[in-house]
Amino acid sequence: MIRLAYSLFGLLLLLLLSGCWNSKDIQNMDYATAVGIDYLNGQYITYIQLLNFANVGRNENVEIGKNVPIWVGKGVGRTISESLTSIYATSQMRIFWGHVKAVVFSESVLKKGIEDAYNSFYRFGEVRYNIYVYGTKENLHDIFIQKSVFNLSPLDTIMISPEETYSQRSFIVPLKGNRIIAQISEPGEPAIMPSISIAKDVWSEEKKGKSMLKINGAFFFKGQKMAAWLSEQELSGTRWTQRQLRRSLVQIPSGGPVVANLVLINPQYDVKSDVKDGKAVFDIRLKLDATLDELLKNVPIRFLEEQAENHVRDEIMESFRMGLNKQVDVLKLEETLYRNHPRKWHALRDNQPFILNGASIRSITVKVHLRNTGKYKGRVG
Hints:
Layout: H1 2-16, E1 29-40, E2 43-51, H2 53-56, E3 71-77, H3 80-88, E4 94-96, E5 102-106, H4 107-112, H5 115-121, E6 132-136, H6 140-144, H7 162-166, H8 177-185, E7 191-205, E8 208-222, E9 225-231, E10 248-252, E11 260-276, E12 279-295, H9 301-325, H10 333-340, H11 342-351, E13 361-372
Parallel strand pairs: 1-4, 1-5, 5-6, 12-13
Antiparallel strand pairs: 1-2, 2-3, 7-8, 8-9, 10-11, 11-12
Helix pairs in contact: 10-11
GO cellular component, one term: membrane
Main location: membrane
Protein name: Ger(X)C family spore germination protein
């Protein structure tokens, strides 16, 4: 009986406890979802984007299209840590960093060098390495107040969920912080960071224009510092070298009246590298599958495939030349030489900081296979 009494008393005490004493109610915390880092006049300016998760949860009680308020905090300091810490003075509630989904660096930070930035920011115990990272030429505050269609929250924008758009239109590969840090640390691999901007002339809500976020190009690095920026158009040929490519449209032919549109998928990209007469040379081989997206004129299948092959080959060469103009390796050719012939790569780099030139690409072989003509069984060939 005594043991039973002690057991009942202990059970009663457990029922009276209100839970973990150190726990916080979800509504009593500020949740940072994105961080922006700028540098001006010897000081870091940081921005944090806050969301109330009660307003963005997907359940039957949340009204789709209801305006979701976005709060943006701004800090200033001589270091990133000091700048972020200065926001605490007015935050009213504890800020939780475990839900940060994206980090955006201004162009001035990229020019200064991002080593201090990521060393400081990623030391926060709550911040993860696998968050999306961008550079931008835009004002960071303007970036952080952008919403998605139907007034959905920033969690539904390209900045936080870029894979949704990339699956339908594959151009610039979205990258996460751990991947970019790895690229910067590898001597033979060029570091690439997608750039994000604001498009103001595409969407409207009835007669009112609505700006939306867009990935408009990429920043390239030499070491820790930005070396160049190229637009999406200038980098159009690089998409065919991406093994992650899911879907990208090309017009046939690329010049003159359009007769068809093909969607290219499943790239098989291979580069052979060597050094001849003291210069790096590369042979590129690429295979792609295609589906017919639109047919405006009855033409042979092989004509469509050949035109697509020419289009892809021309785009790759044009992007390569654009990179040469800015002394950056947009096709990551140098990495293949570094991996396969490290001694030859070191010998070249000892004499010249940039080993590529207009004759570096010795050959480009492209093969496109049209797999199907889509749901509509119109005439082809």
